[in-house]
C-alpha cells in the first residue's frame, strides 16, 4: 500500500472523529439502516437546494443582529489612535464578534483595555490575580471621553448602546471563577479557568454573550470544555470531552431553537496517559493500539451526512492487501472500505435516506509535455490509480458528488452572490462572487 492509501485512511478516521452523540440513533436506527425517501433524485436535489437557500436566509439575518451596533459602540470607546494597532482581516460576522474584544473596522487596539484598567501584567501572574486587578465599574464619561472607574465585585462597563450616543444604557459584565491546585503547565501553579462569562445587555435585554466552562482531571488536562459566542438569537457553541476511552467534539450554530449547523465527533480507543506513553515509546506500535472506532456526521438544518467506521477491522484488513498492481490493490481496498465504512445522506426528522456513499477505484490518465526516460521531449501519458466516492440513490442510479452538487443549484448560487453583493456594499469589502 502506498503513502496515499495511508493518507486516505487517515482522512477517513479524521472524518470519523467528528460525530454527534446527542442525536445519535440507537443501534436499530443507524442512518445506514434508514429506508430510502420516496422521492426522485431531482426531488432530492430540490430539497437540498431549499436547505441551501435557508442557509442564505440565516446568514442575511445574522448580519443584522441587535448586538452589532452595540459592539461597534463599545469598540469605538476603547479605540485610542495614539496607541499601536494591529490590522487583521475577518468576515463581517467575525468582526462583529471580535468587536467585544476591542476590535473595530479591522483594527485592534491591544493597549487600550489594559491602560484603562491600570493592569500590571508583570505582577499579576495568575488568572485570578489578573481578574481581581481588573474588578470595578467602568462608566463612560461622554464629556471627558474617558472611562471612570469605581469599586465593584466584578468587571462592569456602562456605555451607550450606539456609536456617538450619550446615554449609558448598555452594560457589559465579566465574571470569572478558577480552580486551584492543578498544574497543567510546568512553572505555573496558579488557578485554571473554570467559568468565564461576558454578557452585554441593553436595558434588560441580553444581546451578546461569551461563555466558557471547563472541568479538569487531576493532572490539569481538561476533561470537558464548553464555549459559546452568542449574538442573540444566534449562538455558536463548541463542546469537547476527553476520557481514557473516548474523545468527543461538537460544533453547533443555532438560531434560537432552530438548528442551522451541527457537527459532532467521537473517537473510541485507549487514550490513557499510560497507553499513550507506551505507544509513543514503542517503534513497532500500530494506530490500532490507540484507535478502535468512530462515528461522524455533519448536519445542515434537516439534512445530515452521517458516517461510522470500524477502524480496527479496516486497518487490519488493509494491512493484508499485498498486490503490486496499484489499481488491483485499490480495488481490494475499496471492498474493505465499503465493508467497514458507512456514510449516508439522510433527512433527520423523517429518518429517511436520500443517498448512500460508495467507494470505487478509478484510473486517472494525465497527459503533458516533458522529457521521457529516453531523454526525448514530447507528449507523455501517465496512468495512475485513485479512490473516489459517489452517491447511490433509491433507484440504484449513481452520481459523483461534484456532478450532483454542481448542477441544479443555480437559485442557491444566485442568492449567495446577491448576499455577497450586499456584504460588499455594507462593509466596503471585495468578496468575489461564486462561479
SSE blueprint:
Layout: H1 3-16, E1 35-36, H2 41-62, H3 67-78, E2 85-87, H4 92-98, E3 103-104, E4 107-109, H5 112-117, H6 127-134, E5 136-141, E6 146-150, E7 155-159, E8 170-179, E9 192-202, E10 205-216, E11 222-231, E12 234-242, E13 246-255, E14 258-269, H7 273-281, E15 291-300, E16 303-309, H8 311-319, H9 326-340, E17 341-347, E18 352-371, E19 377-393, E20 398-400, H10 401-406, H11 410-427
Parallel strand pairs: 1-18, 5-7
Antiparallel strand pairs: 2-4, 3-4, 5-6, 7-8, 8-9, 9-10, 10-11, 11-12, 12-13, 13-14, 14-15, 15-16, 16-17, 17-18, 18-19, 19-20
Helix pairs in contact: 2-11, 8-9
* Main sheet attributes: strand count, strand direction, barrel closure: 17 strands, mixed
Integer tally of domains = 2
**Structural class estimated from helices and strands:** alpha+beta
**Terminal CA distance:** 37 Å
| Residues in β-strands, percent | 35-45%
| Overall residue-averaged pLDDT value | 76
Put simply, the count of helices is 11
Rg is 27 Å
Gross morphology is: globular
Taking pLDDT < 50 over at least 5 consecutive residues as the criterion, the unreliable ranges are 1-28, 80-124
Helix content: 25-40%
The total beta strand count reads 20
Structure description:
This protein has a 17-stranded mixed beta sheet that branches. The chain is 29% helix and 38% strand. A hairpin with a 5-residue loop joins strand 18 and strand 19. The chain has helices spanning 3-16, 41-62, 67-78, 92-98, 112-117, 127-134, 273-281, 311-319, 326-340, 401-406, 410-427; strands at 35-36, 85-87, 103-104, 107-109, 136-141, 146-150, 155-159, 170-179, 192-202, 205-216, 222-231, 234-242, 246-255, 258-269, 291-300, 303-309, 341-347, 352-371, 377-393, 398-400. By secondary structure, it is α+β, with helices and mostly antiparallel strands. It is built from eleven helices and 20 strands. It has two domains: 1-65 and 233-435, no CATH class; 66-227, no CATH class.
Amino acid at each position: 500500500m502506498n503513502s496515499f492509501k495511508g493518507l486516505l485512511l487517515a482522512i477517513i478516521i479524521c472524518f470519523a472523529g467528528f460525530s454527534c452523540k446527542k442525536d445519535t440513533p440507537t443501534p436499530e436506527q443507524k442512518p445506514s439502516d434508514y429506508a430510502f425517501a420516496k422521492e426522485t433524485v431531482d426531488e432530492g436535489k430540490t430539497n437540498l437546494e431549499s436547505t441551501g437557500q435557508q442557509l442564505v436566509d440565516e446568514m442575511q439575518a445574522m448580519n443584522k443582529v441587535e448586538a452589532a451596533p452595540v459592539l461597534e459602540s463599545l469598540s469605538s470607546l476603547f479605540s485610542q489612535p495614539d496607541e499601536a494597532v494591529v490590522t487583521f482581516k475577518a468576515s463581517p460576522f467575525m468582526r462583529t464578534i471580535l468587536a467585544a474584544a476591542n476590535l473595530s473596522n479591522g483594527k485592534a487596539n491591544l493597549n487600550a483595555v489594559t491602560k484603562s484598567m491600570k493592569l500590571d501584567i508583570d505582577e499579576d501572574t495568575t488568572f485570578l490575580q489578573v481578574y481581581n486587578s481588573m474588578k470595578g465599574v467602568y462608566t463612560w464619561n461622554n464629556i471627558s471621553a474617558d472611562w471612570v472607574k469605581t469599586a465593584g465585585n466584578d468587571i462592569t462597563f456602562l456605555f451607550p448602546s450606539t456609536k456617538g450616543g450619550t446615554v449609558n444604557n448598555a452594560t457589559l459584565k465579566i465574571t470569572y471563577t478558577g480552580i486551584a491546585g492543578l498544574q497543567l503547565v510546568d512553572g505555573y501553579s496558579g488557578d485554571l479557568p473554570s467559568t468565564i462569562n461576558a454578557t452585554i445587555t441593553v436595558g434588560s435585554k441580553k444581546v451578546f454573550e461569551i461563555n466558557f466552562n471547563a472541568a479538569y482531571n487531576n493532572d490539569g488536562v481538561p476533561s470537558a470544555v464548553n464555549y459559546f459566542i452568542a449574538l442573540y438569537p444566534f449562538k455558536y457553541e463548541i463542546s469537547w470531552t476527553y476520557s481514557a476511552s473516548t474523545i468527543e467534539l461538537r460544533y453547533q450554530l443555532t438560531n434560537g431553537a432552530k438548528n442551522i449547523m451541527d457537527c459532532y465527533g467521537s473517537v473510541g480507543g485507549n487514550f490513557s496517559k499510560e497507553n499513550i506513553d507506551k505507544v509513543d515509546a514503542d517503534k513497532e506500535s500500530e494506530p490500532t493500539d490507540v484507535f478502535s472506532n468512530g462515528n461522524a456526521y455533519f448536519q445542515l438544518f434537516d439534512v445530515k451526512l452521517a458516517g461510522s467506521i470500524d477502524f480496527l477491522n479496516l486497518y487490519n484488513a488493509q494491512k493484508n492487501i499485498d498486490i503490486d498492481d496499484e489499481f488491483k490493490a485499490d480495488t481490494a481496498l475499496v471492498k474493505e472500505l465499503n465493508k467497514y465504512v458507512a456514510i449516508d445522506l439522510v433527512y433527520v426528522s423523517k429518518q429517511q435516506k436520500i443517498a448512500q456513499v460508495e467507494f470505487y477505484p478509478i484510473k486517472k490518465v494525465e497527459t503533458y509535455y516533458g522529457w521521457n526516460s529516453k531523454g526525448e521531449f514530447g507528449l507523455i501519458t501517465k496512468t495512475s490509480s485513485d479512490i473516489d466516492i459517489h452517491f447511490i440513490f433509491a433507484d440504484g442510479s449513481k452520481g459523483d458528488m461534484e456532478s450532483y452538487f454542481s448542477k441544479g443549484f443555480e437559485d442557491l448560487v444566485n442568492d449567495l452572490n446577491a448576499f455577497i453583493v450586499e456584504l460588499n456594499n455594507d462593509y466596503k469589502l471585495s468578496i468575489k462572487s461564486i462561479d
